[in-house]
């Protein structure tokens, strides 16, 4: 096996100092384009790769962000996490992805592993974090941002959609369409997204003198959502809802399939269906799902901005509670009220 090429050999080949080589391969360091070009050419000729871990030990920064994910079945997360990873890489950070269970059952073990990597920051997506784990991260000096989750934990930044407002919009739309029996299929009860969407939905119904006609739990899970749809709609017409808000699109697409292909009902003729997220399949003609959009680009921008501020200014950065408004995207899965357009 050939010996590993060193930065000193690169410096000698490029005719520069060893410290200049170090600056070229340090994100954000000051170096002229001429020097950078010479060093990169010499490095390419010699097959040199900088030792990122060694540099991290010297600088005290690993340039690694731990990204904790629990729920990838929903199309929203792979797309949002790709955007998030790209945005962090543009800031000069490497992303390590860790899988956890959605219920936070094994999150403590995952956090132990993450902290062992000496990460500069942590982003959790689709994960419920306990105050104990948050305090451990704070004690270790590692900033945490919750993505698409919000929890009442002091000092923790969260970035979400305005889920309460989104739930209200869905209810107001279905009421405007003249629906009399409005149902709700919930997600995992431990998720703030589920809690806030249902709270906004119920509040708008109650202001109109209504209540939820029927409720089932789909648990943000395909099979559970399928069973919830069978229970809710496998009844005579007067005993089933004529409209339903489903707590996310992943479940809503499954619910539509059960309504149409198992139970032989029409969408929106017999049942209007509204989802939440606006994932790519929602726009497919086969579904044409009316849904509340989560603005993934803005959510990613806010998450990266907050995380960078906490990393660069740990003493002065204030925790943020960001809730971004999202529009109702009107398509063909729900009766369109008079005066509304697709």
Distance between the termini: 64 Å
How many structural domains does the protein architecture include?
Answer: 3
In CATH, what is the homologous superfamily of the largest domain? Response regulator
Number of helices: 12
Please outline the major beta sheet: 6 strands, parallel
What class would the helix/strand composition place it in? alpha/beta
Average pLDDT confidence is 87
- Silhouette: elongated
Low-confidence segments: none
Number of strands: 12
Q: What is the percent of helical residues?
A: 40-55%
Write the CATH architecture name of the largest domain: 3-Layer(aba) Sandwich
Roughly what fraction of the amino acids lie in strands? 15-25%
The CATH class name of the largest domain reads Alpha Beta
Query: What is the CATH topology assignment of the largest domain?
Result: Rossmann fold
Strand order of the largest sheet: 2-1-3-4-5-11
Radius of gyration: 25 Å
Question: What is the helix/strand order?
Answer: HHHHEHEHEHEEHEHEHEHEEHEE
Topology diagram in text:
Elements: H1 7-14, H2 18-24, H3 33-46, H4 52-59, E1 64-69, H5 76-90, E2 94-99, H6 107-116, E3 121-125, H7 131-139, E4 144-147, E5 157-161, H8 163-176, E6 182-186, H9 192-207, E7 214-217, H10 222-233, E8 243-246, H11 249-262, E9 272-277, E10 290-293, H12 296-312, E11 321-324, E12 328-329
Parallel strand pairs: 1-2, 1-3, 3-4, 4-5, 5-11, 6-7, 6-8, 8-9, 9-10
Antiparallel strand pairs: 10-12
Description:
The structure is a single chain. The chain has 12 helices and 12 strands. With 342 residues, it is α/β, with parallel strands linked by helices. It has 3 domains: 7-50, no CATH class; 62-161 and 295-324, Rossmann fold, CATH 3.40.50; 163-294, Response regulator (Rossmann fold), CATH 3.40.50. The chain has a 6-stranded parallel β-sheet. A 6-stranded mixed β-sheet has the order 7-6-8-9-10-12, with helices on both faces. The protein is elongated.
């Amino acid at each position: 096996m050939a010996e590993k090429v060193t930065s000193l050999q690169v410096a000698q080949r490029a005719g520069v100092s060893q410290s200049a080589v170090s600056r070229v391969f340090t994100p954000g360091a000051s170096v002229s384009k001429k020097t950078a070009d010479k060093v990169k050419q010499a490095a390419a000729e010699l097959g040199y790769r900088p030792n990122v871990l060694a540099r991290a030990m010297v600088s005290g920064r690993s340039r690694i962000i731990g990204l904790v994910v629990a729920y990838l079945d929903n199309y929203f997360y792979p797309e949002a996490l790709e955007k998030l990873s790209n945005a962090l890489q543009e800031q000069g950070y490497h992303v390590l992805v860790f899988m956890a269970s959605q219920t936070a059952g094994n999150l403590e073990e995952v956090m132990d592993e993450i902290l062992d990597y000496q990460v500069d920051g942590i982003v959790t997506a689709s994960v419920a974090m306990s105050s104990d784990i948050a305090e451990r991260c704070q004690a270790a000096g590692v900033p945490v941002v919750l993505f698409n989750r919000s929890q009442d934990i002091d000092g923790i930044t969260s970035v979400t959609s305005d889920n309460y407002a989104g739930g209200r919009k869905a209810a107001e739309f279905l009421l405007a369409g003249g629906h009399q029996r409005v149902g709700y299929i919930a997600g995992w009860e431990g998720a703030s997204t589920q809690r806030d969407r249902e709270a906004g939905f119920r509040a708008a119904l109650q202001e109109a003198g209504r209540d939820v006609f029927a409720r089932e739990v789909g648990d943000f899970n395909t099979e559970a959502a399928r069973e919830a749809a069978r229970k809710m709609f496998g009844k005579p017409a007067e005993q089933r809802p004529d409209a339903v808000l489903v707590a996310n699109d992943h479940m809503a697409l499954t619910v539509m399939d059960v309504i149409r292909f198992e139970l032989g009902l029409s969408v929106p003729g017999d049942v209007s269906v509204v989802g939440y997220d606006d994932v790519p399949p929602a726009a497919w003609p086969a579904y044409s799902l009316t849904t509340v959009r989560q603005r993934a680009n803005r959510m990613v921008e806010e998450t990266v901005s907050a995380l960078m501020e906490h990393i660069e200014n740990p003493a002065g950065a204030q925790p943020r509670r960001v809730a971004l408004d999202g529009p109702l995207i009107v398509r063909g899965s729900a009766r369109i009220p008079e005066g509304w357009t697709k």
